[in-house]
Amino acid sequence: MPLFISVVVSAVLQSIYSIVSAIGLYFAYSQDLESIISNLELGTPTLLLASTYLFSCLGFCLAPLVHGGTGLLYAYLHQRGRHLTMEEGALGGALAAGTARIVAGLFSMFASTLISWFATRGLYEATTPSIPTNMATLSLLSSILSSLPGLCFGIIIAAVMGGIGGLLGGSTFHSRHSE
């Protein structure tokens, strides 16, 4: 049960962040759509670029807290039921954080694919009278395929950070039971 609770809590937090960042980036994109169309040669619009940097930096700062916290939560919940070793804390924390990243990553991939489809559709509607169906399909496929390496890398990072959090939790709660 500690594994399930840790995975659900972490996956929900990560999914909420994915929703907020996807909506924020879509808002920035829709605000800059006119600028994108009129200034294709001049570079990336500033609101879209700033929003991308903001959400990337925020995600970079929150990731260790969420993934390490998942491992720590697992260790805390696990030790309430029985004695917890440091190894169990580290392995359980890594498993909980990695599993949560898989769940949240698949949700994020779905959300980003949906947002990408709307953004591509908006761009094509603004620039051409009709959307070529193969271009919309190609956009969806490229969005999915570009998300897979990030998901795989994210699972590894989450498991390492969750393992560290579980190890810290295991050592903390192990020393409490030893006294």
Helix content: over 70%
Strand content: under 5%
Total individual domains:
1
In DSSP terms (H or I, runs of 4 or more residues), the helix count works out at 4
Description:
Helices cover 90% and strands 0% of the residues. With 179 residues, it is an all-alpha fold. The chain has one domain (2-178). The longest helix has 46 residues, at 133-178. The protein is elongated. The model has no long low-confidence stretch (mean pLDDT 81).
Topology:
Layout: H1 2-38, H2 46-81, H3 86-127, H4 133-178
Quick recap:
By secondary structure, the protein is mainly α.
Features:
mainly alpha; 179 residues; 0% strand
